[in-house]
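During the no-cost extension, the postdoctoral fellow (Dr. R.K.) reprocessed legacy sequence entries with the updated structure-token encoder. One reprocessed record is reproduced below for audit purposes.
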Amino acid sequence: MREEVREVKAVAFGGRWLAFLLVGGISYVGGYALWATIQMGAPLFDWLWYVPLLLFLVLLLLPYCLRFSRSRYLKLVYIVLLVWLVIGYNSLTPTQTLSLEDAPSLSLSFWFPGRIEQLSEGLLNDLTDAQSTLIIHVSLPLTHENQDYLISLLNQLAAHQIPVVLFVPASDFLSLPVYREWLESVAATAMFVQSAQLPNVCGVIGDAESPREARYAFPTTTAAALQIASDEMEAFLQEFHAVNPRMPLGVTASWPLFADQLDGDSDLAAFYQTAVDPPGNWGFVSVMNYTSYYPASWRPYLLARIIWGMERLYPEQSPIHFIGIAGGGFPWEPVLTFEDAVANARLSRALGVSEVVVFQLKGALDKHGEDFVERLHAAVNETDGTITLPFSRLASLWLFGTAVLDAMFDLLVGRLWLLLVWAAINFSIIWRQERQFKRAKQNLFTDNKIP
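Re-encoded structure tokens follow.
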């Protein structure tokens, strides 16, 4: 009987200790995510909702941790917080109205993986009128045949005064397993551009993504490899820009790979297994805002939040924003309608973005017609008026979740000592409470003992 009682007490003690540990985790992780949300430029009505959420979760666990009853006052606090959460979820979030009257024209660039035969004279004239830049794939290895084709393509574009950014691929994106392969390809491409004297090449870009097979890894397993890659890429970027001052080397990546800059570490980069920032000294940065992956109700606010966040992180670089997917891509990837692509571009223009890249032109021409560029330019830059920016709590929660993931890695990797200290402190608190409770119980039994 006594053994069973001891087991019950041990389980109860362990449960309270774990709950107390969870309180500390929620406070740290939630507090960081809230801070990151504010740093991303979220409006007051957005980030303020997370305050009652975190308070409710902490106050829900504390009575169990500290063994005090939930008084009517505490229950009233619960009710107030729940009402705040329900009302504030979407009801108190105004729809913002943005004006395009004084907004400068948006530079429309296009990712083009197609062949030279697909560039009709009419399309080239449309690209010239829109003052567009084309991102062209470099076919590797740079054999004589591939070089001759690329020279012919670039000369045709130069005749129409269309600048070009060269996309240098790698066998598995720009990721940790193949980053050296990518650096060698970039160096070879730069030498080719110099030797061929191609004046309309205005930059080189890489696509930083997770490896296809093993997309995610716990940060401790890749941290050493990431540090080596970051150091080598930083040295390469410095040398590249010194040798090629008129051909900046840039990168495109999804938002989480830039979010590490909010806390200055590289947890998310190690998780996704690719180096973006660090190394950080890119000639230009661009973020892939492929809103076609998300429900239509999420898209405007998700795009706006990422635009605000990138402006905060890179105030001097005018980040470029990829929008799409307007056509092409993998067969399973969802595609925007023409109206949705226009909405994304107009919202970007209203929020002060200087350049967007439409992904991708070949697929967009197949889906939306040969006059896609002309119609898009007219709809985005030749009409003003106002646009509305509706709020989406689910889009906000998705971004909040990214910050939560980053904070969890901070706590489990970089600040594990803090978690251990907190575990020791709450173990001591619960142990002392148990002793005091036991003494009080013994004193009660002694006082009530019949003489």
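The chain has two domains: 2-94+415-447, 97-389. The CA atoms of residues 215 and 272 lie 6 Å apart. The remaining legacy entries will be reprocessed before the final report is submitted.
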